[in-house]
Amino acid sequence: MNGLRELVSALAQKHGTRRESLLPILQGIQAHEHYLSDDAMVEVARALDLSTAQVYGTATFYSFLVTRPQGRHVIRLCRTITCVMHGKNQLLKELETLLKVRVGETTADGLFTLLETNCLGQCHQGPAILIDDEPYTRLTPERIRVIVAEYQQKAALESENSGLINS
User: Fold this and answer.
1) Per the confidence metrics, is the pTM higher than 0.85?
2) Binding site residue list for [2Fe-2S] cluster
3) Which GO MF term does the entry hold, naming one (predicted)?
4) What is the DSSP letter of 125?
5) pLDDT surpassing 70 at residue 164
6) Architecture of domain 73-166
7) Parallel, antiparallel, or unpaired for β 112-117 and 73-78?
8) Could you report how far apart the first and last alpha carbons of the chain are, in Å?
9) How many other C-beta atoms can be found within 10 angstroms of the C-beta atom of residue 46?
10) What's the distance, CA 59 to chain centroid?
């Protein structure tokens, strides 16, 4: 909790303690902690002299802020009508099969969380996904398999390398 208090304090110093600082502070916490815990939201409420309800309301309003732990990589699949018309439902089925999860769930290894989201601003290149902050467009089930495999290989390599370092 002390580390969290220090993080919130540092973010409040950087962004200020006025109401308009709430969003950048929440984004900073999420960047550091990967989600917004109840404890984090209480600390932010204290630092900004807001009610916890105001902080929680903001945290749950924005789809890119999350209030529960997620996978190391978050896959956001665009669910707009344009992406649906370009094959989004095929991609969703492929992702669910490949990852063995449904929308809103995290893989057993903690590597991926699969979410649907509103427009990613790539309608002219749909269907589209966002993995963390990286957009992927004009997708097919085959291309999805390649992209997911690349993330899995990178994670396996990092895991091997950290095992070598710790040996």
Assistant:
1) no
2) 78, 83, 119, 123
3) oxidoreductase activity
4) G
5) no
6) 3-Layer(aba) Sandwich (3.40)
7) parallel
8) 31
9) 15
10) 13
